[in-house]
Structures are given as structure tokens and as C-alpha cells.
Design goal:
With about 350 residues, the protein is of the alpha/beta class. Helix content is about 35%, strand content about 15%.
């Protein structure tokens, strides 16, 4: 697989590990992917729950947790480490600032709104690269133009997340089955937008959502992508930071178990069906209060459940009180393997696919 650059950083294996919260992709998984030449990504979501000890408010605990995870990752790898910061997070600005202060290699940001002010957090000494996550060429164009006009800065890469992604989706429910919004349609459109700025900057486009084989990687590279982002395939690895129970949910799932749910964030999400989701649908999980205020758009008095607690519980293995976000092909998982084995399989599949295409 051919390397590519995000700014002046060479990504030797063109695979970005998707940021998965709460507590699914932390320093353990991120450092393992980075050690294989890809980009390992720490999710910022819910870090205050994962680092509950010590003084301070929930947002302060999130900051401390992020610092700790970045430092842990740095101790395990000399590879490329990024963080994923949802725009919908109430402490979005603090988490971006903290990541940049800690000299993270890349900040990936999307989910909930366009990250229109992301370059404003850079300082003259910053080396961090900025990568927005979009679901359309229109979004890519808006972000590029706003960043250029307001900050004289263009994205260092753009992640295009299609309808088959896991977790929160940047589409309306009725768009999920519409081929106009399929990743195969989106990639060439965003590549065209990125190319229109090539006189000023090379902006690689990264395909994401439902990518699960080396053949998929070859397919999207043929369409113009420089690399891919993959999440679900890394959940069932030894190095993934989730509990073994969480990983087993993937392994035992069937295609019909992967479904679209409504999230308190106000976006559709893709998850694996289970007892908790059934209880939500029956109105049994309504929160009585909220001590986190973690999502800007969430009003606990109207929410069917507390998403941060549900995702935290699931990551810890309490599936009766939570659920697993997952990509459309998560049910393909058959066993627990190492990140090295996953990457080797992808390389082999990619090699066979490219020779077939040739």
C-alpha cells in the first residue's frame, strides 16, 4: 500500500484508525496502529468518566484524561498519533487546545457541526495537522473556503465519512439508502473539491465508512482516495481498549443486528441491537438528571437515555446498560486478533486486489 502525506507527515501505511468513544480507542489501540505505520487515534469522548479520580469538574477531568492518554501513547510508539474531537462536545474547545498543547500529530474533527473555527486554536509554534470529517462535497467546500478566508489555512487532509460508518452519521435517515450519498459517489466529488486548491496546498482525501478489507482500500484508492479510515475492524483486536465483553458483541453479531438508532445528540447512529436498545424503545432508560452536560445539543429532560453513560457502560462490558456503536460490516468479525495481523491481512488483500485490477 502506497504511503501519503498529511501536511509534512508521511503516513507509511495509508490506514487511519477511526476514533471510537467512549473508551474504545485510547492509547492502547492508537499506539498499536501507529506502530504498524498507520495513524492511531484517541477518542476524546467521555474521558472524564474514564478518569474519575482527583479533584475538579467533569470537563477538567476530561482534560487530564486526554493528557494522560496522549502521554501513554507516546510512551508506546514513535508513530503518528491523532485525536478525534466531536464538534458536538461541550468541552470541544478545551479538548482541541489540550491536544495541540500536547503536540498531538493530527486533530480529526466532525460530528454535530462543521469545525469552522478549528484553525483558530493553532499557535505560531503548533505542528499539529488539522483534518475535518465531512459527509458531502458541499461541507468540504464550505470548510475549505471558511478556513482560507478567516485563517489563511486549508485542511491538511479531509476525511469523507459515508453512510456505512459506525456511530453518529452526518446524514438524514432517509439518505442512508440513497446511492447519491454512497461513499463511492462522495469520494470523487470531494477529490474534485480538494483538487481545486492544489495550487495552494495538496489536500489528500481519506475514505471512511464500511471499509473492511484490503480490496475495499484498493477500490477507494482507484476512486481517488489517498487513504482510508477504519474503525470496526480494530475493535476485535487484542490491543483495543474496550472490554472483552464488548468485543464479543461484535463477534457474535449477525448482519440483521446492525441497525440505525436515534441518538440524543440529534443524529442517527449505527449500533448493534441489544437489551438496552429495546429498553430505550420502551421508554425505560430516561435520565432523571445530568451531571456531565457533555453534548451541546443534548437536553436530558427530552432525551430517551444518557448516551455518555450508555457508551461508557458498554465499553466496560455492562451491555445491559449500554450498546456498541458499529460500522455496517461489524458483523464480519470472527475472532480476536492482533493489530499486526489485521494490518498484514489488509496488505495481502490489497496486493491481490490491485493485481486483479491491473
Amino acid at each position: 500500500m502506497k504511503s501519503f502525506f498529511i501536511g509534512n507527515i508521511e503516513i507509511k501505511t495509508p490506514v487511519i484508525q477511526g476514533g471510537m468513544g467512549v473508551g474504545i480507542s485510547l492509547s492502547g489501540l492508537a499506539s498499536a496502529v501507529a506502530n504498524e505505520g498507520g495513524v492511531g487515534v484517541i477518542s476524546c469522548a467521555g474521558l472524564g468518566l474514564l478518569y474519575p479520580k482527583g479533584k475538579g469538574t467533569y470537563p477538567e477531568k476530561c482534560i487530564n484524561g486526554l493528557k494522560e492518554e496522549i502521554r501513554k501513547a507516546r510512551a508506546k510508539t514513535k508513530g503518528i498519533i491523532g485525536v478525534n474531537v466531536m464538534v458536538a462536545l461541550s468541552n470541544y474547545a478545551d479538548m482541541v487546545r489540550t491536544a495541540i498543547e500536547e503536540k498531538i500529530d493530527v486533530v480529526f474533527s466532525g460530528a454535530g457541526a462543521f469545525p469552522l473555527d478549528l484553525p483558530s486554536y493553532l499557535t505560531p509554534e503548533s505542528t499539529t495537522k488539522l483534518v475535518p470529517i465531512v459527509s458531502s462535497s458541499r461541507a468540504a467546500k464550505i470548510i475549505c473556503d471558511k478556513w482560507q478566508k478567516n485563517y489563511n489555512y486549508l485542511p491538511d487532509a479531509i476525511v469523507v465519512e459515508g453512510t456505512k460508518a459506525g456511530g453518529h452519521l452526518g446524514f438524514k435517515k432517509e439518505q442512508l439508502q440513497d446511492q447519491h450519498y454512497a461513499l463511492e459517489a462522495l469520494i470523487p466529488e470531494v477529490v474534485m473539491i480538494a483538487s481545486s486548491y492544489k495550487e495552494q496546498k495538496q489536500i489528500p482525501v481519506i475514505a471512511a465508512g464500511g471499509i473492511s478489507t484490503g480490496e475495499d482500500i484498493a477500490h477507494f484508492m482507484e476512486l481517488g482516495a489517498a487513504g482510508v479510515q477504519m474503525g470496526s475492524i480494530f475493535v476485535t483486536t487484542q490491543e483495543c481498549d474496550a472490554s472483552e465483553t464488548f468485543k464479543e458483541v461484535y463477534i457474535h453479531s449477525k448482519s440483521e443486528d446492525v441497525l440505525i438508532i436515534e441518538s440524543p445528540v440529534g443524529m442517527p447512529g449505527r449500533a448493534i441491537d441489544g437489551e438496552f436498545i429495546h429498553n430505550v424503545n420502551s421508554g425505560l432508560e430516561r435520565p432523571k438528571s445530568c451531571s456531565f452536560h457533555c453534548i451541546k445539543t443534548c437536553d436530558y429532560t427530552k432525551s430517551p437515555y444518557c448516551i455518555i453513560k450508555a457508551l461508557y457502560n458498554a465499553a466496560k462490558g455492562n451491555m445491559k446498560k449500554g450498546y456498541a456503536f458499529a460500522g455496517s460490516n461489524a458483523f464480519l468479525a470472527e475472532k480476536i486478533s492482533s493489530v499486526k495481523e489485521v494490518m498484514s491481512t489488509l496488505e495481502r488483500e490489497f496486493f491481490l486486489a490491485t493485481h486483479k485490477l491491473a
